[in-house]
Every structure is written in structure tokens, then in C-alpha cells.
Design goal:
Layout (H helix, E strand, L loop, with lengths): L2 E6 L4 H10 L5 E8 L8 H4 L10 H5 L3 E2 L11 E4 L3 H13 L3 E4 L24 H9 L4 E4 L3 H17 L1 E9 L12 H4 L10 H12 L2 E2 L4 E2 L4 E5 L9 E9 L5 H9 L14 E3 L8 H4 L8 E8 L3 E8 L3 H17 L4
Parallel strand pairs: 1-2, 1-4, 2-3, 4-5, 5-6, 7-10, 12-13
Antiparallel strand pairs: 7-11, 8-9, 11-14, 13-14
Helix pairs in contact: 1-11, 6-8
The chain binds NADPH dihydro-nicotinamide-adenine-dinucleotide phosphate (NDP) and aspartyl phosphate (PHD).
Length: 345
Amino acid sequence: MSVRVGILGATGAVGQRFIQLLDDHPTFELAALTASDESAGKPYREAAKWRVDTPIPVDVAETTVRRTEPDAVPDDIDLLFSSLPSSVAVDVEEDFARDGYVISSNSSNDRLAEDVPLTIPEINPDHLDLIEVQRDERGWDGALVKNPNCSTITMIPPLAALDEAFGLDRINVSTLQAVSGAGYSGVTSMEILDNAIPHIGGEEDKMETESRKLLGDFDGAEIEWHDADVAASCNRIPTLDGHLENAFVDLDDDPEVSDVADAMREFPGVDLPSAPNQLIHVFEDPERPQPRMDRMRGQGMQICVGGVQSTENGVKFNCLAHNTVRGAAGASLLNGELLHENGYL
Ligand SMILES: NC(=O)C1=CN([C@@H]2O[C@H](COP(=O)(O)OP(=O)(O)OC[C@H]3O[C@@H](n4cnc5c(N)ncnc54)[C@H](OP(=O)(O)O)[C@@H]3O)[C@@H](O)[C@H]2O)C=CC1
Ligand SMILES: N[C@@H](CC(=O)OP(=O)(O)O)C(=O)O
């Protein structure tokens, strides 16, 4: 039986990716699209400036956009994906959850809240049960689940593989982030062409905190964050999609490089419709991964690693993920599939 889903903020950059990824989904049937009051009442093709590299699905093009409030969305929607600006999502998502809706959100508000699961299905699926705590504390019938920031999600799978096999102590990471992460109008061409910008507001703090929550332990009541030190430096470069990162990791053990690569390659995936067959692809070629060549591996859902080398206290490596697929809409979609598999819908 199909699951009826909706998208909050469906006309935006991430909303459009949701529509693309939900087209022909085996379980989820797209049944409601919302946006701001300016878009509400218009057919989607008129409200949204479509910029994704596949055509708007025909039925979506003619769908009337709704207001973003619980009364405007049908009661029989089982799951809402949220790609609202976080300043809007912070109140709106709670209104929907209070009204009984389950929300899988990409927006950055509440990611660190003690009773909000921040999940990547392959890494910490058990954290999803924090929903029970959330429902007890907030008296909600619905639920709010988050995926991490796009730069954070890029490095977490290889770090989780290292932690499990050798123990993480300290992480230093530097990013080379694509312009799509800032949204269509986020960085002007005059700012970014022939250039690099060594600051992305709030991004370093997100990488340093969300990573420790994601890698933490859930005891059924609360999450104990991982105690590794994480330091991040974030940079914008003129690629379109795909965040590349250089990580330097101190480990508790002293493994061979080949064992590090094996631990990453063998890190298990999950059996969900949008998950890649293999979570981490490790390149031997030191010139890979590259954003243009590798961001679409596994339909944009695989994490690519390369340049694995030993250092005095551990290893260094490069990693890459598609920031608007694995780092945004695809991450929320996978969490939606996890919610479904775990009986939360
Ligand atoms: N761009 C990216 O690659 C990434 C973005 N994110 C995060 O995802 C979220 C969405 O980003 P993005 O898609 O780029 O943003 P956009 O600005 O492209 O889209 C925002 C969406 O929210 C709607 N919206 C705006 N204001 C309101 C309001 N007051 N009430 C109801 N709906 C409203 C817009 O509708 P309308 O069209 O009518 O204005 C639109 O549908 C943000 O939190 C962002 O930080 C995360 C990772 C990557
Ligand atoms: N800040 C990220 C994109 C983003 O919006 O992240 P978040 O989901 O944490 O708001 C980037 O510029 O690449």
C-alpha cells in the first residue's frame, strides 16, 4: 500500500529535488505541495521556477500549491518532508507535529534539540526511537525527525567506519563546498567566479556539533554525544554541486592504510529503496573523488573517499557527497523510508 506524502517548501531548491527523487518512488505517493502565501493557490509550474535537470513531472506541474499550515494540508497525509527556511520551519514544523503529522525535515532548526532524532539510516537508525521521548515530553501524536547539514553528512560515514574499527579521538576537516549549498541566489557569480570564500556562516559550528550527536550513543532515554574533538574550516568554491572535504583524523589505534580502506568499504549499508548498494566507495586513484565526476555515484546517495594515507596519529583522507541529494532531499527521503520501515507512519 502506498504512503501519502507532502512537501513543505516544495517550490524551493531542495523542494524541487524532493519532487525529482519522489517521482516513481516505490512506496511514497506525492499528495500535497506547500509554499509561502505568495505561491499558494497557483499551479506548481507557475509558482516554482524549475531548475532541476529533469522535467517537472506532469501531474506535479498542474498541482495547486497550498499554504504552509496544518489546516491547508489533508489529514490523510502520512509523512511530510520539510525544506523550509529554518527561520520559518522553527515554528511551522512544531505546529504540524502538534497536529499529528510526522515530519522528516532538512531544515537546520532543532537538529541539536535533546528530544529530536538527528539520523542517517546507515549510521544511527536506533536514534529514531527518541521519538518516543519526544512524544512523551511534548504530548505530540506527530513527530519531528532531522537529517544533518550537507557538509556534516559527507564526512560522517567514513568517520563512523573509523570509529567502529579503530576509535576516533580528534577530527580536523576542511571543506570545499559547492555554490548550490547556498541556494540559487545565495552567492553571486561576481563573488564566486575566479575565487574562493573562506567562510560559510554557521557551517563550522554545525559540523563540530552535529557530528558528535550523530556518532553518540542512545540509551533509550537520551543521547550521549561522542567525545571526539571536531574542528572544521568551511570554504565556498565555484563548483555547482558536490561538497569535497579533506579530513585529518587521530585514532585510538594505529591501523595499516589497507585496513582503513577495508573498514570503509565494508561498512554496511541499509536495505531501503533510496539507499545505495554500497555506502562508501573508496578510490585508489589519488586524484579522486572529484565533484563533477563522482557526485552522482549511487544516484547521488553514495559517499566517495580517496587519498587515504597514514599520519603520525591516524589517517587523512578526502571525501565527497552530492550536497542537495545525499546532503539534503535524499537524506530526508531516506529518513522517511526509515520511519516507514520502523512503523512510525
Ligand atoms: N540549497 C541547498 O542546497 C540546501 C538547503 N538546505 C536547507 O533547506 C532549506 C531550504 O533551502 P532551499 O530549498 O535552498 O530554499 P529556497 O529559498 O529555495 O526555498 C524555500 C521554500 O520555502 C518556502 N517559504 C519561504 N518562506 C516561507 C514562509 N514564510 N512560509 C511558507 N513557506 C515559505 C518557499 O516558498 P516560495 O517559493 O513561495 O517563496 C520555498 O518553497 C533551508 O533550511 C536550507 O538551509 C540544506 C542543504 C542544502
Ligand atoms: N550551509 C550549507 C547548506 C545548508 O543550507 O545547510 P543547512 O541544511 O545546515 O542549513 C552550504 O552552504 O553548503
